[in-house]
Amino acid sequence: MPAKYNKIGINYNQTRKADPYLTEQLIKHLNPKNDGLYLDIGCGTGNYTIALWKKGFHFIGIDPSIEMLQKAQLKNKDIKWHIGTAEKTGLTENSVDGIIATLTIHHWRNLSRAFSELAYVLKPVGKVVIFTSSPIQMEGYWLNHYFPKMLKDSILQMPSIDNVLAVLHSAGFKLKAKEKYNIKPDLKDQFLYCGKHNPELYFDENIRRGISSFSALSNKEEVETGLENLRSDIDSGKIEKVIKNYENDKGDYLYLIIEKS
Questions:
Q1: Cα(48)–Cα(12) distance, rounded to whole angstroms?
Q2: What confidence tens digit (pLDDT) does each residue in 181-195 have?
Q3: Which of 2, 26, 39, 242 has most Cβ atoms within 10 angstroms of its Cβ?
Q4: What whole-number distance in Å separates Cα of residue 86 and Cα of residue 143?
Q5: pTM of this prediction?
């Protein structure tokens, strides 16, 4: 996994930027205090870490990729950036007031160990806010029509919400709230389903390179064929029917707001 993101990290900042709306949602759910210390686990190049720091909140950024952290360091030298994982943060017991994890839980190799570690470093009244998607939500992406194997592999690595809930309860957490998120047309962070409303985005190689599904789980032939079919459907107008066939009320992503039991 570090090797994967070392590769992605080379041009990651070109397309992966902190989205203002998502940043505000993180603040709403985490409810951080100006005198607290917070952890961004799987921080990548620190886009959301820095966005929250600019709002006056103190954060530590932890990621397994040295390439990502070097870019984060260049953007903000006042934040402490550390190599680590959700399973092994290197932090001391009860050392942080809250934790955010954005689009990273599917990279955790051992969910049970990860939640136990987060419970260990989190203070008794702290919160964990996870922004992720579920397998059921991902099955509703129209990307399945054009890149079926890539999406299948992406869905397979995404833990089910039932599994996440079972593991977090075992680690001493409880789910306080769950909130669905649907992609907005003005999304600034170009992650997997960023092109929900604008399929043209997927023809940008830089955008695909910043998405782990395209850069690490796809094969060249499927991507080329999928893009050819997507272009044909956009030009003919068929894309509208494809998108409509995938409309659902499950949400595209979701927030899990978690507290210690």
A1: 13
A2: 999 999 999 999 999
A3: 39
A4: 29
A5: 0.93
